């Protein structure tokens, strides 16, 4: 399992944008993790699924509400990663009104979740292999802090906890 001090593994995520701009076509577009994190400070939070109750009501809204605080703390980008396809993540971004704040990135085949060891098997609930709920602070591809939730919990991966670690 990935830990503080490790470099994020190579993986390709997918992103769907509603409008073209800054070199991004409507998509979906590939986002190579190692390239996209190079030279940047990124707040990442992973979650089991788009449109699920805790993810939609608490996890994403917390990062949206704290977006300006993350920017003020030196964070270049905020990423939300889930094992969904890029079209679902794009629709969820529209529903959450996250455009221009949170990059909603799809890990459709759970490649990044598996490479980091941050998987959650929800097969018994009809959802298959997913990402566990977590947050991490990444600087130039290196994990500076990592907060992994226990099953069914939402206690340490929230925006306030990660922001305090970044500011700390």
TrEMBL record:
Primary role: Thiol-specific peroxidase that catalyzes the reduction of hydrogen peroxide and organic hydroperoxides to water and alcohols, respectively. Plays a role in cell protection against oxidative stress by detoxifying peroxides.
Main EC class the enzyme belongs to: oxidoreductase
Name recorded for this polypeptide: Glutathione-dependent peroxiredoxin
Gene Ontology terms: cellular component: cytoplasm
Span of domain Thioredoxin: 2-168
Active site: 55
Coiled-coil annotated spans: none
Keywords: Antioxidant, Oxidoreductase, Peroxidase, Redox-active center
EC number: 1.11.1.27
């Amino acid at each position: 399992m990935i830990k503080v001090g490790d470099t994020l593994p190579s993986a390709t995520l997918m992103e769907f944008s509603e409008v073209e701009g800054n070199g991004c076509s409507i998509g979906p577009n590939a986002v190579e993790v190692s390239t996209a994190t190079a030279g940047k400070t990124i707040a990442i939070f992973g979650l089991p699924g788009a449109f699920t109750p805790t993810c939609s009501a608490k996890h994403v809204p917390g990062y949206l509400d704290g977006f300006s605080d993350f920017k003020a703390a030196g964070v270049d980008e905020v990423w939300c990663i889930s094992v969904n396809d890029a079209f679902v993540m794009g629709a969820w971004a529209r529903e959450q009104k996250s455009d221009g704040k949170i990059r909603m990135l799809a890990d459709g085949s759970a490649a990044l979740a598996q490479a980091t060891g941050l998987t959650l098997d929800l097969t018994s609930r009809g959802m298959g292999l997913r990402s566990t709920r977590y947050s991490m602070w990444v600087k130039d591809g290196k994990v500076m802090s990592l907060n992994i939730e226990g099953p069914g919990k939402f206690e340490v991966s929230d925006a306030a906890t990660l922001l305090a670690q970044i500011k700390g």
